[in-house]
Design a protein that fits this description.
Structural class: alpha+beta
Strand order of the largest sheet: 4-2-3-5-8-10
Order of helices and strands: HEHEEHEHEEEHEEEHE
Helix content: 10-25%
Distance between the termini: 18 Å
Number of domains: 1
Number of strands: 11
CATH superfamily: YbaK/aminoacyl-tRNA synthetase-associated domain
Strand content: 15-25%
Number of helices: 6
Largest sheet: 6 strands, mixed
CATH architecture: Alpha-Beta Complex
CATH topology: YbaK protein
């Protein structure tokens, strides 16, 4: 099924794959979507609408097996605080219903904050703008499409983690995100990120175990939009 999200990517000449799955209205979790489309949950990113106060909104894009850390997001986005936008406001603000929220084709573009792990993969999946349909594309193309919205786009550590017992992060290891603004994603940025290895980029902060979202599927929960 062609969606507004897919049409937006087509308008930019960005390659993608549409992958459909059977929708269970009682289970819209990203973990379930990942199983249905045959991808690891850490590569299936969910798009959440967050508010920092009246008429202040941000998109947060995080892996399907992770939970948004509101304090980290607030720091990254320069907000005093951040919390989930009420579910009743999501469709009027974005044009999309729970389980089908995406950046692309939304009624209004809001600044975008993407978990920094996005750059670790060859491909990621995000909602195409409708339940039952996912977009598959490269992280570089996803970031390039996000920049075309002409809003601030930043990668940052915005998810909760449980530090492994092997040791704590060293000094200066808390901020590893790349701040991106309108325009093309330049090759220098990606060369620096990939460290010339040709493989997955090496991040300075050791990632701990992620806190998943496999709790009961509650629409009012912090993971209730994507």
């Amino acid at each position: 099924m062609k969606t507004n999200g897919a049409r937006f990517l087509e308008s930019l000449g960005i390659p993608f794959e549409l992958r459909e799955y059977e929708v269970d209205p009682n289970d819209l979790s990203a973990l379930t979507v990942a199983k249905k489309i045959g991808m690891p949950p850490e590569q299936v990113f969910k798009t959440l609408l967050v508010t920092g106060g009246p008429n202040v909104y941000r998109f947060a894009v995080i892996p399907g097996d992770a939970e948004l850390d509101f304090k980290k997001l607030a720091r990254a986005s320069g907000l005093r605080k951040a919390e989930m936008a009420p579910l009743k406001d999501v469709q009027p603000l974005t044009g999309y219903i729970r389980g089908g929220v995406t950046l692309f084709g939304a009624r209004k573009p809001y600044p975008v904050y993407i978990d920094e792990t996005v750059i670790l993969f060859d491909q990621i999946s995000v909602s195409a703008g409708a339940r039952g349909t996912q977009l598959i594309l490269s992280p570089a193309d996803y970031l390039r499409a996000a920049q075309a919205l002409e809003v601030e786009v930043q990668t940052a550590d915005i998810t909760k983690d449980i530090q492994k017992s092997s040791g704590a992060p060293g000094p200066g290891s808390q901020q590893t995100g790349l701040r991106l603004r309108g325009g093309d994603l330049d090759s220098e940025t990606w060369e620096r990120t990939n460290s010339g290895t040709g493989g997955a980029p090496s991040l300075h902060r050791p990632f701990g175990a992620r806190v998943g979202d496999d709790e009961p599927n509650d629409p009012s929960s912090p993971e209730g939009h994507a």
